[in-house]
Amino acid sequence: MADMPEDQPYTLRPVGHVESELKERRGAPRQGREGAPEAWVVIDAPYADAMDGLIVGDDAVLITWLHQGDRSTLKVYPRGNRQLPLTGIFATRAPDRPNPLGLHRVTILEIDGLRLRVSPLEAIHGTPVVDLKPILPDSLDA
Amino acid sequence: MADMPEDQPYTLRPVGHVESELKERRGAPRQGREGAPEAWVVIDAPYADAMDGLIVGDDAVLITWLHQGDRSTLKVYPRGNRQLPLTGIFATRAPDRPNPLGLHRVTILEIDGLRLRVSPLEAIHGTPVVDLKPILPDSLDA
């Protein structure tokens, strides 16, 4: 776009990463509410100021970059179940998609400097974090 | 990351764009539920297959790239109100943030080929679309 630096029009800047006991995608829960553990979100120092105002107990939407996603996938069997019809990825939450962004509704359990303990989180260890947004009080969405 | 092409590790690929009566950020509602209009989401032809399975009446989370966002902003006055304390952008929904991703919960009103009529949507005309995800039936989040 004309109003963005031309050298990086759509380039995400990781602002942190996930530290989790989940080490690989195989075996990780498909969704946070399916038994995902607590995890730490570690924010990079240059973004410390952006954390001001976060409150323990609040819910937030964490946006990650699902770095192991296959970006060429346009259709999947939902949840890997071949009894279900092949479905376009815009109608699924599959991590294999053109822009492998993960949305995770989490509760902030602890704030320790640049580290946020959150739950539940199905993203694996090392997953880059690109944003964190509050849940709006007048809505149930993210 | 080692498992991503090195030439574009975190580069989003727009999959479509917004067509809206809202032509500029000034004057646009801050959130969809604050009087935002219907709009069209126009998917690019290479991603047509990814739309299979979308259903009129369903709610979805649209992810946009807020291309006019200022990526150097780390704190803002919430809603532009200088009576409120300066707040880190991870605790606000401000479009000025390191990765200006917009999350919009919308209802799919109509599907016409590559075009989706959705409501409400506060994103302005021309906003790039990077993903669309279903709302999970067992959750209220996005």
Protein architecture, described:
The structure is a homodimer of 142-residue chains. Chain A has 142 residues and is mainly beta. Chain A has a domain at 16-71 and 100-134: Elongation Factor Tu (Ef-tu), domain 3. The first copy, chain A, has no helices and eight strands. Chain A has strands spanning 16-19, 39-43, 59-65, 75-76, 87-88, 101-112, 115-119, 128-134. In chain A, the strands form two sheets. Chain A has a six-stranded antiparallel barrel with strand order 1-2-7-6-3-8. Chain A is globular, with a radius of gyration of 16 Å. Chain A starts with 15 loop residues before the first strand and ends in an 8-residue tail after the last strand. The model of chain A is unreliable at 1-7 (pLDDT under 50).
Residue fraction in strands of chain A: 25-35%
The CATH homologous superfamily name of the domain at 16-71 and 100-134 in chain A equals: YaeB-like
Greatest interface and its participating residue counts: A-B, 58 and 57 residues
Shape descriptor of chain A = globular
How is the quaternary structure best described? homodimer
What is the H/E order of chain A? Answer: EEEEEEEE
| N- to C-terminal distance of chain A | 26 Å
CATH topology of the domain at 16-71 and 100-134 in chain A: Elongation Factor Tu (Ef-tu), domain 3
* Unreliable parts of chain A: 1-7
**Second CATH tier, the architecture of the domain at 16-71 and 100-134 in chain A:** Beta Barrel
Given helix and strand content, the structural type of chain A is mainly beta
Rg of chain A over CA atoms, rounded to whole Å, is 16 Å
Number of strands of chain A: 8
Structure annotation, total helices of chain A: 0
* CATH class descriptor of the domain at 16-71 and 100-134 in chain A: Mainly Beta
- Mean pLDDT value of chain A: 90
Strand order of the largest sheet of chain A: 1-2-7-6-3-8
Level of helix content of chain A? under 10%
- Biggest beta sheet summary of chain A: 6 strands, antiparallel, barrel
